[in-house]
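Issue: ligand-bound run for zinc ion - logging full I/O for the record.

Environment: standard queue, default settings, no custom constraints.

Inputs:
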Amino acid sequence: MISGASRTPGGRAKNVILLIGDGMGAAHRFAGQLLTAGRSGRLAMDRLPHLGQMNTLSVDHETFVTDSAAAATAIATGSKTINGAVSMNADGRPQPTMLELMQQAGRATGLVTTCQLTDATPAAFGAHVPHRSDQSEIARQFIHETRVDVLLGGGGAYWYPLGEANPFSDPEPLRAMSRGTAGRLAEDAQDRGYQLVTSPRDLAGVAGSADVRRVLGLFAGQELFVQSEEGKGDLYDPAVSLAEMTASAIQLLERSADGFFLMVEESAIDRMAHRNNAPLTLKGVLELDRAVQVATAFAAGRDDTLVIVTADHETGGLAIAGSGDTPYPYEPGGGLLDTMLAHEDGPFPVADEPYGFVVGWATTGHTAAAVPVTAMGPGAETISGTFENTDLFPMVLEAAGIEVGARG
Ligand SMILES: [Zn+2]
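Outputs:
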């Protein structure tokens, strides 16, 4: 049974697993539920015992709606910043991240994503750059400076010098030219003690090998999917799933006697929502939920692991309505479909019901909507009510027994 009540008195989180559905608002979670668990079932992420609501606004000079870099920076460092900045505050000063502070306290560390490893969300936990576009510098910092133990995801193109050969020529839709600007980083990683793997088989091999500590797994040149509108080349059928990467990362990190910090990101939710591609946005939600099941299965049998599931922001302004065009003569305006926005997707079936649902999109961008946060394990009880994205930083560190010093 999943229960936050299993916490031992005075217990702290030896391990922290933070799962981020990029762009995943309340409606994305509910749509995933309708599709697989029905109207009264629950996704694994919504069965966690503690629930809060997190505000996501950034302190950009031109908008209040955040991008993924400012949002991940707020979560990772406790400092709001301008859009595009990676773990630097609005004055351009690097801020220590929760991954770095957990590492200083002896924890092993890992970053897992279906996006480029060097994209904004993972970047904000293990690198500091003025702008998220500097992906090779982010990769360099991961292995030279932060020395994150386990790195699994896409974006292999940034680890090989511009124009040179790389292992990411297959399958065709995911082919990617090398575009690295910071030298032979994949080789460099190996020189620095990382096992480099590019196939699920090799990943399983190193994860099962007791003497392996550092792993760099690159499974695509760019994302582990192709972002596009429906029927226009969209694809999400990765060689290695987020759940498999999460399981391998936990297998590697749990060997650390002092515990670990692991951030897991499902990026397809955001990327597909930018294209208003409902089927693959929902697939992203369900892929994240499978990774959540891996995390909660690990945490459920012990009292020392904090699991948090949240988002950096909402993407698409997603709305859900019934698919039957039921008129409401007692309300002006007719049925729900009459009031749906122009960009409508579906219908999708509601599990175990004779009716379906449709989704509507308000935008192809991000919105200012608050996002749900669910949690289990020691410290999860502090996830409650409405709070800022910057509040997760002290919540996680305090749960892990790490003093949060003055920051500037
Ligand atoms: Zn986005």
